[in-house]
UniProtKB/TrEMBL annotation:
This is Cystathionine beta-lyase. Pathway: Amino-acid biosynthesis; L-methionine biosynthesis via de novo pathway; L-homocysteine from L-cystathionine: step 1/1. InterPro entries: Cys/Met-Metab_PyrdxlP-dep_enz, Cys_b_lyase_bac, Cys_met_metab_PP, PyrdxlP-dep_Trfase, PyrdxlP-dep_Trfase_major, PyrdxlP-dep_Trfase_small. Residues 1-24 have a biased composition (Basic and acidic residues). It catalyses: L,L-cystathionine + H2O = L-homocysteine + pyruvate + NH4(+); an S-substituted L-cysteine + H2O = a thiol + pyruvate + NH4(+). Belongs to the trans-sulfuration enzymes family. The modification N6-(pyridoxal phosphate)lysine is found at K208. One of its GO terms (molecular function) is cysteine-S-conjugate beta-lyase activity.
Amino acid sequence: MSKDDKATADVHTRLAHGGRDPRAQHGFVNPPVYHGSTVTFPDVETMLSGRQRYHYGRRGTPTTDALTGLLAELDGAAGVVLCPSGLSAISTALLSLASAGDHVLITDSAYGPTRHFADGVMKRMGISVDYYDPTIGAGIAALMRPNTRVVMTEAPGSQTFEMQDVPAVAAAARDHGAFTVMDNTWATPVYFRPLDHGVDVALMAATKYVVGHSDVMMGTVAANDRAWPLLKAFHGDSGLCCGPDDVNLALRGLRTMAVRLARHQESALAVAGWLETRPEVAKVLHPALPSHPGHALWRRDFSGASGLFSFVTREMPLKAVAAMLDGLAYFGLGYSWGGFESLAIVADPRKIRTATTWNEPGHLVRLHVGLEDPDDLIADLASGFDRMNAVREG
Ligand SMILES: *Cc1c(COP(=O)(O)O)cnc(C)c1O
């Protein structure tokens, strides 16, 4: 089998075989972890020529190359950079592309800290920011200004799970000469490859499914040929790098990511379907459910769904929701997601909207369905609803 066959193999095969070369490592299956700042050169001529592959730890090591190489293959990218958190991947993507005087459009359903960064740092730097309805699709063209440089997408939306017509938004941005960025943490390239749909820069909080074990913070940014020179230059100039042991844990996590995602998907759908039958639940926000308003877009563009979704309760006091969540045995109360364990948060999207309004009278509960047995998780939630109802009736 040739190298080219490997690059077109199924994603499970690529995750198992990419980013490593046992013959170059004395036959060991995994690449070694290079701890290093200093790199030495054999002579002055080599040092000054720039020909040596590695010259300083911050600028990359064989360990970081193994991870970025595999990620670039997964996303079909010209290049990938690593950042010390998902949020720093967001700031890196945006600042690589936008400069003082530029205008940036961001989906109203963006991850909260994305909005905070845009409204704070970016505005302070003279970049103007507007938010748009995530369901706008090709209508984004009407919001473009002569100086619109970046359109930021995220699908499904953080907490509220609106789907976006990413190809339509990306096509409108490109017609206008702007770049499209996508936060693809939810689907990962296993279920959606943004660059194949016209997006220029696809980023992930690798903290979530790539690492997969809730023990490392990391972000990744992948770019196509058009955006890669800008991303590479900004990343290098700003001195971002990740520690070798974290990079190694991310590479280790990637090996099993598609298998974990399949299990997250199946269990989350089982839990979501069950929640739809519960009288305490007003709505389940999961794009793979036929009841979801963005279901057709999800079916058209995505090949799967991960383990994160929300539900909205019927109108009730917060203390009834708290009684449910406080006593859960398997769902931890915690931000983040993407690890092997189930998690829950209660959130209020009302506070972080400007282009659209959130009118649900109930409370929004976001669940991450982990790798536990789904029947155990459903039983856990069922006792939670008993506690909720005891407070409502009491
Ligand atoms: C968690 C998250 C991030 C940020 O990742 P960190 O590693 O926590 O900085 C970015 N985008 C989305 C959609 C997230 O859920």
